[in-house]
Amino acid sequence: MKKIIGITMSRRQGQNPKNFLDYAYVKAVVDAGGTPVMIPNIGEEYASEYIKKIDGLILSGGSDVTPFYYGEDPHKISGPFCRPRDVMERAIYLEARKAGIPILGICRGMQVIASFEGGSLIQDIPSQYETDLLHVLSGPPYAVEHLAKPVPGTLIAELLGEEEIIINSIHHQAVKKIPEGFTASMHARDGMIEAMENVSAKVLALQYHPERLQAEYKEFRKLFRWIVEEAR
Fold first, then answer.
1. What 3-state DSSP class applies to 52?
2. Which domain range does residue 68 map to?
């Protein structure tokens, strides 16, 4: 039987709220041999029910995490925020940790994990982090590419190798303080943390978007195979 991998969804607020998800996440799970199940933002009380039905959890990309979760007021350039999504994802992340199922955080997903585990974020890279490296474009196609290097001996190095690789970059925020129990396992040349992990807890978090790369660059499929193979 194929493993069921839950994927959290973005939420567009307003008069006609919508939950939505980039199809690339779905395809990445299917290509890795799993069965994707999309998880809408319907309330924290549903978190435990979803965890009973899934074998692994992907926290997807999206809007900024509300900074109150890591003890800060919003920076003037941070946002937009989505409190219903924050509440739902915090609940389902904590339930997944309690259940011991594997968790893969992608972009916002990595920032969610850091925020809920006692870490903190750079709220706006251009104004709060000194670098000549571009991490996001302000207009289409939005993504830029740059080099990043896995830390030898880490899970990400085991999956992707220890040499520098080209990754995509679509983020104006990043992890500033790594949570206790986690290891920074990949860095860009400017020192930006591009991955972190807690191997004993089966948590792997990436700042970039491998779901958008794996169809063309098959080495990135190993990240999704990891969560499928680790699934209970």
1. helix
2. 4-230
Cβ atoms 65, 72 nearer than 8 A: no
* 14 has pLDDT over 70: no
Number of domains in the chain: 1
Q: Position 190: which residue type?
A: D
Question: pLDDT tens digit string along 140-165?
Answer: 677 889 999 999 999 999 999 999 99
Q: Say if residues 63 and 80 touch (Cβ distance below 8 Å).
A: yes
Separation CA 98–CA 101 (nearest Å): 8
Token duo for residue 85: 């999504």
Mean pLDDT, residues 181-207: 97
CB neighbours (10 Å) of residue 192? 22
CATH assignment at residue 24: 3.40.50.880
Pairing of strands 120-122, 103-106: unpaired
List, for residues 105-131, the tens digit of each pLDDT value: 999 999 999 999 999 999 998 898 888
The half-sphere exposure of 115 on its side-chain side, counting CA atoms within 13 A, is 28
Query: Among all chains, which residue has been given the structure tokens 């490296």?
Result: 133
| Residue corresponding to tokens 């904590």 | 94
Nearest to 135 by CA among 165, 175, 169, 173: 169
Could you tell me if 110 and 207 are in contact, meaning their C-beta atoms sit under 8 angstroms apart?
yes
Residues 124, 29: Cα–Cα separation, whole Å: 30
